[in-house]
């Protein structure tokens, strides 16, 4: 079964958004400060503030996450314990989004590991369901990436279940992550899932985001099976076969109705991804 490796990549420009505002930032420190400030200003405009949790927040964060995950199985609800949150707070980052009354509206954890690339790992994103369509989850994950980059991590990683197409649409299309590996049988509350990663450089962070119109145009004018592969999100055997061959990688998600009547993954040949 394919495992995630340290890979740095660049999705083809003919599929990606142009980011004129950020393309000239080559200094990591200046990029991080400026980008984090922009995110904080957006939260403030919604009457919310972002901060890092401490030990006194553990019970509050634990209850918030359990409430947000109550729609899932008990295994998923209990996948992260209060003790885990203690470790995240003490040795990583518990990122909290609150209003002036200290009510939590979002949270995500970011933890670093002593691997050769000093991997950052993002997990357990939770958003208050009473506030929608404000890009809170997207921005919280971005914030976690920047905290990892600030600490010196070269790549951020995650694990997403194959049927969570909404999350894939956000992390692959809107944020620029890639599915660098596939786990067919995990048995940790996730039946099967992709390991995902994003290079933590200004270029990796901003230049891998999919342009929807470019993607659809590429599919229309190129050859399926050769230039790209479309995979139904629930075709676990086909996904497993592709990742066993290691010649294509999933780089984008397609919502039901864009191409077919089912949510799909879009994979490119590895030679098109400038992997190094």
Fill in the keyword field for this structure.
276 residues, alpha+beta, Aminopeptidase, 3-stranded antiparallel β-sheet, 9 helices, 24% strand, globular
What would your notes on this structure say?
The chain is globular, with a radius of gyration of 18 Å. It has helices at 28-45, 58-68, 74-77, 82-91, 136-151, 165-174, 202-206, 212-221, 236-245, and strands at residues 49-52, 92-98, 104-112, 120-127, 155-161, 178-183, 193-199, 229-232, 248-254, 264-269. The longest helix has 18 residues, at 28-45. The strands form two sheets. It has a seven-stranded mixed sheet with strand order 1-2-3-4-5-7-6. Strands 8-10-9 form a three-stranded antiparallel sheet. With 276 residues, it is an alpha+beta fold. The model has no long low-confidence stretch (mean pLDDT 91).
Gist?
This protein is α+β, with helices and mostly antiparallel strands and 276 residues long.
Give me the Rg, rounded.
18 Å
Describe the global form. globular
Largest sheet: 7 strands, mixed
Euclidean distance between termini CA atoms: 21 Å
Percent strand equals: 15-25%
CATH architecture: 3-Layer(aba) Sandwich
Helix % is 25-40%
Q: Give the strand order of the largest sheet, numbering strands 1, 2, ... along the chain.
A: 1-2-3-4-5-7-6
CATH superfamily: Gcn5-related N-acetyltransferase (GNAT)
Total of helices? 9
User: Total domains, how many?
Assistant: 1
The secondary structure category is: alpha+beta
What does the average pLDDT come to?
Answer: 91
CATH topology name, in short, is Aminopeptidase
Order of secondary-structure elements: HEHHHEEEHEHEEHHEHEE
Number of strands: 10
Identify low-pLDDT runs: none
CATH class: Alpha Beta
């Amino acid at each position: 079964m394919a495992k995630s490796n340290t890979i740095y990549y660049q999705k083809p420009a003919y599929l990606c958004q142009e980011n004129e505002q950020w393309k000239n930032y080559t200094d990591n420190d200046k990029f991080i400060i400026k980008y984090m400030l922009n995110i904080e200003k957006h939260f403030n405009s919604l009457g919310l503030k972002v901060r890092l949790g401490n030990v006194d927040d553990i019970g509050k964060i634990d209850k918030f996450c359990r409430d947000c995950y109550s729609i899932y199985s008990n295994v998923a609800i209990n996948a992260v314990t209060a003790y885990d949150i203690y470790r995240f707070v003490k040795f990583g980052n518990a990122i909290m989004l609150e209003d002036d009354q200290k009510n939590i509206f979002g949270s995500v954890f970011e933890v670093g590991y002593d691997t050769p690339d000093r991997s950052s790992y993002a997990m357990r994103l939770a958003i208050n369901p009473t506030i929608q369509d404000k890009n809170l989850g997207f921005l919280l994950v971005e914030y976690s990436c920047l905290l990892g980059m600030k600490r010196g991590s070269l790549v951020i990683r995650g694990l997403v279940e194959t049927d969570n197409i909404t999350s894939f649409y956000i992390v692959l299309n809107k944020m620029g992550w890639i599915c660098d590996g596939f786990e067919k049988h995990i048995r940790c509350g996730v039946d099967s899932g992709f390991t995902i990663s994003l290079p933590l450089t200004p270029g990796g962070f901003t230049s891998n985001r999919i342009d929807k119109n470019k993607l659809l145009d590429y599919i229309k004018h190129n050859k399926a099976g050769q230039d790209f592969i479309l995979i139904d999100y629930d075709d676990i055997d086909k996904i497993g076969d592709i990742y066993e061959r290691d010649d294509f990688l999933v780089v984008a998600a397609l919502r039901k109705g864009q191409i077919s009547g089912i949510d799909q993954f879009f994979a490119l040949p590895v030679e098109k991804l400038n992997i190094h």
